[in-house]
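User: Can you help me understand a structure? I only have the sequence.
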Amino acid sequence: MSRDRWGIEGPPPEAYSRVTNPERFRPLHSFTEGLVAQLEARFDVERTEGYGLDAELERTGTARPTIRLTPRSPRTAPLVFAFSPFPGVVTRSGQWQVDPFPSCGCDACDEDAEDGIERLTWLVDQVTGGRFREALDLPAVGPALQRIELWSLDGSRQGSERRLERADAQRLRSEADQATFDWEAWPVRAVGIL
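Assistant: Let's start by predicting it. Here is the structure, written out as tokens:
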């Protein structure tokens, strides 16, 4: 990522609303298709493919059918991959975590496909490795919060916390059988079984 190309003054204001050459993100589609195939070969998962699998991820349209990989253990986080026409990929990890690749795409952010591939690979490694926790806090008083934590074997961590409207938090909570998920590692596929 060459964020310093703008120099010390940063990008011009118009760069935040401009997307030059969105096709530079097209490699995210083929990379994700290959990643899904690798995950399917390595882990004991069920693959579901089609349109309408995740309305939130597909709200801006899809360039091809969405793919959901559901591990056969209920204590492991499913992964959903939606292929946006931008072109990009939007994922759902577990119950609530949604991540876009690229994260923005505007000229000011100056992302490229390699940035997205690196972030996506890291995310998938942590989710499949069982280094992923998510929680929805809905106190009687005060704001509702969605908390996400991912960590890698080398000790690096990523976490986020975002406020939610109470109605949105109540809807999300009603769709899940619990408020906190400490996801486990995906089960490895038995040798010789596909």
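Now, to help you interpret it: The two ends are 38 Å apart (CA to CA). The longest strand covers residues 144-151. Let me know which part you'd like to focus on.
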